Amino acid sequence: MADLVNYEGKRVLVVGGATGMGAAAAQKAAALGGHTIVLDIADMTYECGQYINVNLGDQASVDAAIEAIEGPVHTVLACAGVADGTGNLMLINFTSQRHLIEALIKGGKLGRGGSVSFISSAAGLGWMSKLEQVQDFLATPDWDTAAAWIDENEGTDSYMFSKQAINGYVAAQAFPFLQRGIRINSIMPGPTDTPLARANADLWLGFGASYREAADVPTLVPEQMGDTLLFLSSDAASGINGINLLVDQGHTNASLVDAWDDPFVKVMAGMMDFDPAMFGMDE
Fold it and tell me: pLDDT tens digits, residue range 209-268?
């Protein structure tokens, strides 16, 4: 099995790889023999094969980064993400990364035998209940039309919709990418102790805290997400394609079947309408 999760001779592109889960994945990929290429707006704090500074909210910057990538890419880890309240959220969390992946394929830098793994979120769990809206957005063919669609659809420039879009994109591209010999998957992390989560600690790290306490398990850490991303992109997962994989210690599924009582999970999944009174909140 160890030979199957092996990145010797592989070039691994990590979008949003300077910190958090992306940094954990990039550093583990290098430890497994990979040549890492990191795209980020943040400064690097560790060594990698190539670092490219990029503003994912700006198409010209993303196109310049694509041109700067040296040589072919065997694995793309799309790890960039920002929280609600950040400008250009949808561009950063989804549109730019879709643009980059499709440009790499069109330009021949990502080809047969390659793989793509996104970081989505448990917050995107309800993508199937929003399928018509998600598919309407995904039908936008390019950066400008995607940006215009978000401007025209209230409430979609949001963290939750960005993750729903990722999940829908993974499902939609599983077959056409496979025809090109490329697999695509995502992970859906539960609360994970990253700098972004700490900046939104009450909401992000508070979610599921009682579940973790009752199960006597610690909060997940970036290395666990990095390991799962690299597994999905490795030969050990060669039969896995089009999957949005929960990595949340069982919290979501336990809640969906009432093995654990967390109604907010059902709200996220689209199984229950949000009722402020149920959560001790005023209308």
Answer: 999 999 999 999 999 999 999 999 999 999 999 999 999 999 999 999 999 999 999 998
Q: Are 199 and 133 spatial neighbours (Cβ–Cβ below 8 Å)?
A: no
- Cα gap 41→50, rounded to integer Å: 14
CB-based contact 79:42 (threshold 8 Å): no
For the chain, helix (H) and strand (E) counts, in that order, are: 13, 7
Spatial contact of 74 and 11, defined as CB atoms under 8 Å apart: yes
- CA-to-CA separations, 33 to 2, 7, 134, 184, in angstroms, rounded: 12, 5, 37, 22
Residue 57, token pair as written in the block: 């909210």
The stretch 41-48 carries a mean pLDDT of 97
* The residue type at 1: M
Domains of the chain and CATH, by start: 11-249 (3.40.50.720)
Question: Confidence band (pLDDT; 50, 70, 90) for 283?
Answer: very low
Residue whose structure tokens are 């549109």: 95
Considering only CA atoms, which of 158, 169, 12 is closest in space to residue 91?
Answer: 158
Q: Report in angstroms the alpha-carbon separations of 163 from 66, 93, 136, 157, 180.
A: 23, 8, 15, 11, 25
Report the largest interatomic distance among the alpha carbons of the chain, rounded to a whole angstrom: 57
* Cα first-last separation, the chain: 53
Residue 89 C-alpha from the chain's centroid: 13
